Amino acid sequence: MPVTHSGTLTDNADVSIVVGGSAYVMPVSLSYSQNVNAARKASFEVSSLEDVLKCPLGTKIVITVGYYPQPEKAETYTNYYNFEGIVREVSPNANGATITAYDYISLLQTSTYIDYKGADAIGHDLFVLAANAANISEIDTSNLLGGCGINATKAMGLSGLMTRKAFIDKCFSNMISVVTDSTKYHEALNAKYWQYGIRHGKEMDFFELDTSNVSSFPALSVSMNSNNLLSITPTIDTQRMVNSLTIQSSTADFNFTYTDTDSVNQYGVSSKLISLANNKREEIETAAFEIVSRFNRPTYKYVVTVTNAQAFSLGDYVEVTMPLLGTQLLPIQGITTSFTDSATALNLGEKELSFTEIIKLIL
């Protein structure tokens, strides 16, 4: 049966850590950290030599976390806290050691190199190709059904010697689409993109982010007055901002510049030049206007730290309201949870799509 240790882990957490398929260890601290498109890391400290010896490098680790006094709801409530992976680091200390395990995405990263053939990829859905690459015995890919509607092309570079994760990352870097449906979006150009992660246990998830869609809703809303808020740190970034864009046609002798004077007056000029093999003036002018309208403002990122009263997942949306900055709906790109400190830090922000990536999708 699970070993309960409630002396130092907060939130009345019932933590079970099974190593090697049968042995239990007693943690005195536990934390998780994870970013999108990467392995989740679980770190825990043990305070006896006996427990240290149970956790050699390469050992399988299974962690389950339950909450009381409502154990009947523990499975649904703590779904995202269940973890399965492999011990990758052991750091001894005076009392025991800190054990660090990574989930099975780490096996995709360190896999043997595979000679991927372009003929096997071109024309196939990128979602399906990535799911096939993730299909190893340690990872549950049974829920990776359907597709993203984007087929592989030669220009995507999906051939050659790569690890499984390198191939998956190339697929996901191209799983981007631009939509202009005015009934679902307020902006002219709206990017949808896919990300992946093992969000609980050993089950791989591919999830699409569509933040600008009017039907998207937050899993959490925070402001300076929120009861569960511990801290909030915003970052305002102008590095990707474009408020004056010149598009030069490489097949016709003309260029077109569109400048958003309101944005220039507020933030200063931030100009870009791009050359395209397109001689249709109307398309170029429309694209310049839409790109500037999409990138004429700074981008916002936040680190929001809340109590462990609710479990969150990569890809969840968080609505943040701050004085002067207004309200933004942003996806969770990274999570760090400490059961010892009873706190979860959420890294919020959009995927950093450049204007050149967007313009290639619309012209």
What would you say about this model in short?
With 363 residues, this protein is an alpha+beta fold. The protein has helices spanning 49-53, 74-77, 105-109, 118-121, 126-134, 164-173, 261-267, 281-295, 355-362, and strands at residues 13-19, 23-25, 27-35, 41-46, 60-67, 83-92, 97-103, 114-116, 160-162, 176-179, 190-200, 203-209, 220-222, 229-237, 244-249, 255-259, 271-276, 299-307, 317-322, 326-338, 343-348. The protein is globular.
Description of the molecule:
The protein has nine helices and 21 strands. The chain has 363 residues and is an alpha+beta fold. The strands form four sheets. Strands 1, 2, 3, 4, 5, 6, 7, 13, 14, 18, 19, 20 and 21 form a 13-stranded mixed beta sheet that branches. A three-stranded antiparallel beta sheet has the order 10-11-12. 31% of the residues are buried.
Distance between the termini: 60 Å
Mean pLDDT: 88
- How much helix is in the residues? 10-25%
The tally of beta strands, per DSSP, is 21
Poorly predicted spans? 1-12
**What percent of residues are in strands?**
35-45%
Report the major sheet: 13 strands, mixed
Give the CA-based shape. Answer: globular
Radius of gyration: 24 Å
Tally of separate helices? 9
Structural class estimated from helices and strands = alpha+beta
